[in-house]
Write a structure and sequence with these properties.
Elements (H helix, E strand, L loop, with lengths): L8 H5 L22 H4 L8 E2 L8 H9 L2 H49 L3 H25 L9 H8 L2 E2 L6 H16 L7 H15 L20 H20 L2 H12 L5 H26 L28 H33 L3 H21 L7 E2 L26 E2 L1 H6 L3 H9 L9 H18 L9 H19 L7 H17 L3 H11 L5 H16 L5 H9 L28 E2 L1 E3 H10 L4 E6 L8 E7 H9 L12 H4 L25 H4 L2 E3 L10 E3 L4 H11 L5 E3 L16
Parallel strand pairs: 5-7, 10-11
Antiparallel strand pairs: 1-2, 3-4, 6-9, 7-8
Helix pairs in contact: 4-5, 4-7, 4-8, 4-9, 4-11, 5-7, 5-13, 6-21, 7-8, 8-9, 9-10, 9-11, 10-11, 10-19, 12-18, 12-20, 12-21, 13-16, 15-17, 16-17, 17-18, 18-19, 18-20, 19-20
Length: about 750
């Protein structure tokens, strides 16, 4: 008999990468156990799995039988209500993030521009650098010391959680707050990082915190909330939260839903699709209303900034067969660049780990050094560009004085602008908007766009991995847009496509080459550009770039999950698994309980193993032959010991002892509230008593015969979303306890 698919125990407690450094990271508020900057090369704490399977013990069965129509309606109503609340909260947070970034960064650029107008260049550089340094220091300090799990994008953590991996600390209130504060500070501090990934993590945090099933600490013990004390409903709500995060970041509701389906969720069904779509729709509607308020000038420097929009709906785009060749070239180059980008990030994260392993102080120092280096490049590189005369037919003021616009004055005389400063001395969103803009084929010089591309490519690689909340979406979009526009400049009049369209296709190619998504990225870009005429070209670019990049390495989020040591279970089985049966990969000895077990034996097994589930076997005299009764979870056994549900009588436990439990007692506790066997105090007399495990055991666990192929068992395990799978002998009469144990 067995309780899960096999992986070597050492592979569970160690990440896939190893070095000579022996770092033992413990689960605590001050140790980073989920960020890519601390996991690589370290011996991490064990990562638990999630129980998505429905438990069918006597108490849960009785609860289901006793539910009337009113309780069923309450359950459905609460699920939709929580989705609505997730949508409202995430939309407000997304708007607040953009509002804060645009105003904080806007003040910085306004002050610096004023200094530049006064020809006080060194003072302007000092103000710009110190401003960025302080913001980066704030972001890195709160992340390193308060919530290390908030570092990085957050998408790999959420993706692993939806696959069944319970990484510690990723959805706590600390992580939620630090993710917001750190992301705003890092992006406002001109680090080349994005806010889309952190928004996905933030949306998942909102969903996880709302879906805890109440909280005794804060008096949230409403009876309706008890329906959500299980991992299954929390998983669905977190999926809706991740869709809401993408929607809030890009105003792309359909793209957000498809992103959750294609990249994030391991299990999907039509009911979840409806709720995700509803959540994304709520975000889109609320966000649209808030932006309309800002367009009236009531949001400071926000204006139209912060939410990328390349609106060419009124423009008729025509292209011919001759335009396909440059598009194919974009896809091939984007696939190669995307695979190189993933390779470099993988190597940089390994190097950064060696620095972060020395302590939070070194991690903060690294972040500050990256900030100084970034500020020097952003301020210094525009001096390499020559000033260009303002076009006579410019659609906006030229030169631009202030925080945004296509015609940054920088150090140029009146009537001239610095095209490189318009890209590099700006927020990421404004740089993307400038690159995506149409009818601007003569505004940027080739050398300026090429310098901007090289700068973005390497800055985004070195900026990701420092101890701040940092997304990859926006850096990849802005890098791809610059490379696409550069290709458009080289093609020139040989194509009917303008340079702004080449920038959009360049972003698509690099996104496909790095993240390896197709459908969701296509829809997100269409919603960003508000132009369905681009659909065939974007589809073509994404398909080619993904195909080319797949020949070299995996997508960026899968690579990061491997660096973190997350035991992510892929949807497909490897060919060699067809040649093995489940019994070929099991390990032993089997740890199990009898139907009526002595407390001392239970405590000993719980203290000496870390297994989450244990088979319950009835042997004579309870049965004529050994019989598998079911599976009992570790948390449920600890609950029995905590409530002292034992008796000195070897007979079945008295009915009055069972009455002290209800189905709610067997629900999943809130984040970080799990009971531990070390906290249970028992006397010597109690250790000699007996517990009847039958009423608390899941009597219908998933079982497979020992001759089933490993590939078939893996597919069943993955598609059903199991944590435990019992392997039973094919021939009756074999003693069940002689079967070895599969361990995950």
């Amino acid at each position: 008999m067995a309780t899960a698919p096999n992986v070597d125990e050492e592979a569970v407690t160690h990440p896939l990468l190893s070095t000579d450094h022996e770092l033992y990271l413990r689960r605590s508020s001050t140790s980073n156990v989920t960020s890519q900057v601390a996991i690589v090369g370290a011996n991490v704490c064990p990562i638990e799995s999630l129980d998505y399977e429905m438990i069918e013990n006597d108490f849960c069965k009785q609860d289901w039988r006793s539910r009337g129509k009113i309780e069923i309606v309450q359950y459905i109503f609460m699920k939709w209500t929580l989705c609505f609340l997730v949508g409202i909260i995430v939309s407000l947070l997304g708007f607040f993030n953009n509002l804060a970034v645009e105003n904080i960064a806007g003040v910085k650029f306004v002050i610096t521009s004023n200094m530049m107008l006064a020809r006080r260049f060194w003072v302007a550089f000092a103000v710009f650098s110190v401003y960025n340094f302080v913001l980066t220091l704030i972001a890195s300090t709160v992340t390193a010391y308060i919530a290390p799990a908030a570092a990085g994008s957050g998408i790999p953590e959420v993706k692993a959680y939806l696959n069944g991996v319970d990484a510690p600390g990723i959805f706590t209130l600390r992580t939620f707050v630090v993710k917001i504060v750190g992301s705003i500070s890092a992006v406002s501090g001109s680090l080349l990082v994005g806010k889309a990934g952190p928004m996905v993590h933030t949306g998942a945090c909102v969903a996880a915190l709302l879906g805890q099933g109440g909280s005794k600490r804060y008096g949230l013990t409403w009876r309706w909330l008890r329906f959500f004390k299980n991992d299954r409903d929390r998983r669905d709500l977190v999926t809706c939260g991740s869709a809401a995060g993408i929607t809030a970041a890009f105003r792309a509701p359909v793209g957000g839903v498809l992103f959750s389906l294609e990249e994030m969720a391991s299990w999907w069904r039509s009911a979840l699709l409806w709720r995700s779509f509803f959540t994304a729709a709520v975000v889109a509607i609320v966000l649209r209303g808030l932006i309309d308020v800002c367009l009236s000038g009531k949001c400071g420097l926000f204006g139209k900034g912060g939410l990328i929009m390349y609106d060419v709906a009124s423009e008729e785009i025509t292209y011919h067969l001759s335009d396909v060749l440059p598009v194919l070239l974009l896809g091939v180059i984007g696939g190669i660049l995307g695979s190189v980008y993933n390779f470099l990030i993988d190597k940089v994260l390994r190097v950064y780990n060696l620095i972060h392993a020395k302590g939070p102080g070194y991690a903060i120092l690294l972040a500050c050094l990256i900030s100084i280096f970034t500020s020097s490049l952003l301020f210094g590189l525009p001096w390499l560009a020559t000033c260009r005369r303002c076009p006579a037919d410019a659609a906006e003021a030229c030169p631009t004085i202030g925080r945004s616009g296509n015609y940054k004055k920088f150090q140029c005389p009146p009537g001239y602008y610095n095209d490189l400063a318009s890209l590099i001395f700006n927020t990421n969103d404004d740089a993307i908007r400038n690159l995506f803009s149409h009818y601007t084929d003569s505004e940027f010089h080739r050398s300026s766009v090429f310098i901007f591309f090289i700068t973005c490519f390497f800055l985004s690689v070195f900026s990701y991995g420092i101890v701040v909340p940092a997304g990859l979406f926006v850096p990849v979009i802005v890098t791809g847009a610059s490379y696409g526009r550069f290709v458009g400049m080289l093609v020139g009049s040989h194509s009917n496509l303008n340079q702004g369209l080449f920038a959009v296709l360049g972003s698509a190619s690099l996104l496909g080459g790095s993240m390896r998504m197709t459908v969701s990225l296509c829809v997100i870009l269409l919603e960003l550009t508000n132009n369905l005429l681009l659909l065939p070209l974007i589809m073509l670019v994404l398909l080619i770039s993904k195909t080319v990049a797949d020949a070299f390495n995996g997508n960026i989020y899968d690579l990061i999950m491997k660096l973190k040591g997350f035991p992510y279970l892929e949807a497909h089985a490897e060919p060699y698994m067809r040649q093995l049966t489940v019994v070929d990969v099991v390990t032993g000895p089997l740890q199990f309980f009898h139907g009526i077990e002595k407390v001392k034996n239970i405590v000993h097994i719980l203290q000496t193993t870390r297994h989450n589930g244990f088979p319950v076997i009835d042997e004579p005299p309870l049965s004529e032959t050994p019989v598998l009764f079911g599976l009992i979870l570790r948390a449920h056994i600890i609950l029995l010991l905590k409530k002292k549900a034992f008796s000195p009588n070897p007979a079945l436990i008295p009915a009055n002892v069972s009455k002290q439990f209800s189905s709610a007692d067997f629900g999943k506790k809130g984040l970080g509230n799990e009971d531990k066997i070390e906290n249970i105090a028992l006397t010597e007399e109690e250790m000699e008593m007996l517990i009847d495990l039958h009423p608390y055991t899941n009597a219908s666990p998933y079982t497979v015969v020992e001759t089933m192929s490993l590939a078939k068992a893996l597919i069943l395990f993955r598609q059903v979303g199991l944590r435990h799978m019992l392997v039973i002998p094919k021939i009756s009469g074999i003693h069940l306890a002689s079967m070895p144990l599969l361990s995950l």
